Amino acid sequence: RAKAAGRGVVEVFDDELRHELSVQAQTEEALRQALLGNELVLHYQPVLDLLTGRTASVEALVRWNRPGHGLVPPDAFIPAAERSDLICDLGRWALAAALTQLTQWDAAATAGAAGAGGPEGELAGLGVAVNISGRHLASRYLLDDVAAALATSGIDPVRLTLEITETVLVDVPSALDQLRALRELGVKIAIDDFGTGYTSIGQLPNLPVDILKIDRSFVSSPGAGHADLVRLVISAAHSFDLGVVAEGIEENDQLHRLVADSCDSGQGFLFARPTAPAELTIPRTCPATEDSST
Ligand code: C2E
Ligand code: MG
Ligand code: MG
Ligand code: MG
């Protein structure tokens, strides 16, 4: 009887697994079509210099404009894309789209130069950060994809930052070699979601990276020694000549703490949400710079 029951469980499990796999396959196939059918769009979120309040760059964040589903956030489809080389196609598309966007903002500013001071002027010359999956980093494609996007757009490589999630440094054995090769193209490397992986501060001087992005969880929750950790990361980063970006700044007191701790840059709903390029406006001042003279 136990055996029969056991088989029943296995069968239910099989059914669920089969269902799960077919949903996965359908999502993947739909996503493949979406890439071809221009259903993917990039939204952009400003990253502010916390000292001057100026926006020097934006982060490109993908969304899926899926018919019948509305605007689908990346967490709902990036994991499906990462199960195959589809994520490399997506990354290649994102690199090209983001750099093309920069050329369009540059061109709009030149065209509207007569009436300078318009929003176009603030978008010219911006840098852009593109998120790159560990699978794409590990692939033989990424280096060529980055070089091709730079060559096609003519964008100066210093304006492109590649964001790699911290855990990838452990998961992808060739990560450091790949990052070194990418940096030779002249692009910058940021470690995303820093603090969620296993990098020790002692490793920082040996990492071929330019920027640490402190994970939102450390910025938003004040408890459990997070404030001390953030301060420690910022001062360690600075002693190794790395820039620090705080992500997920939602409240003024979070911003004030980061400014007091000499964090270089920040991004979050307090300043601006990620938006479609047509609606993108650059925040004029960083709230903290108005009263940080003390
Ligand atoms: P991420 O790279 O860490 O991006 C930051 C996420 O935090 C974004 O979520 C952004 O909308 C959100 N965010 C920014 N400021 C705030 C804030 O003040 N409060 C809160 N609660 N959230 C804030 P999003 O756009 O949903 O992206 C989620 C993740 O999906 C990204 O995390 C990134 O890992 C991945 N992703 C997005 N676009 C791409 C892409 O083109 N390629 C790849 N491989 N991954 C991408
Ligand atoms: Mg990112
Ligand atoms: Mg992040
Ligand atoms: Mg994050």
Provide the structure class. alpha/beta
Gap between N and C termini: 77 Å
Tally of individual helices: 12
Shape assignment = globular
Extended strand count: 9
Q: What is the gyration radius calculated from CA atoms?
A: 21 Å
Query: How many strands, what sense, and barrel or not for the largest sheet?
Result: 8 strands, mixed, barrel
Round the mean pLDDT to the nearest integer and report it. 90
The hetero compounds bound to this protein are: ligand C2E, magnesium ion
**Uncertain residue segments:** none
Q: Helix share of residues?
A: 40-55%
What is the element string, with H for helices and E for strands? HEEEHHHEHHEHHEEHHEHEH
Note the topology:
Elements: H1 2-36, E1 40-49, E2 55-66, E3 70-72, H2 78-81, H3 86-111, H4 119-123, E4 127-132, H5 134-138, H6 142-153, E5 160-165, H7 168-171, H8 175-184, E6 188-194, E7 211-214, H9 216-220, H10 226-239, E8 243-247, H11 252-260, E9 265-267, H12 287-290
Parallel strand pairs: 2-4, 4-5, 5-6, 6-7, 7-8, 8-9
Antiparallel strand pairs: 1-2, 1-9, 2-3
The structure holds ligand C2E and magnesium ion (3 copies).
Can you offer a commentary on this structure?
A hairpin with a 3-residue loop joins strand 2 (55-66) and strand 3 (70-72). It contains twelve helices and nine strands. An eight-stranded mixed barrel has the order 1-2-4-5-6-7-8-9. The model has no long low-confidence stretch (mean pLDDT 90). Helix 3 packs parallel to helix 6 (142-153). Helices cover 45% and strands 19% of the residues. It is α/β, with parallel strands linked by helices and 294 residues long. It starts with a helix and ends with a helix. It is globular, with a radius of gyration of 21 Å. Residues 24-288 form the EAL domain. This is Diguanylate cyclase/phosphodiesterase.
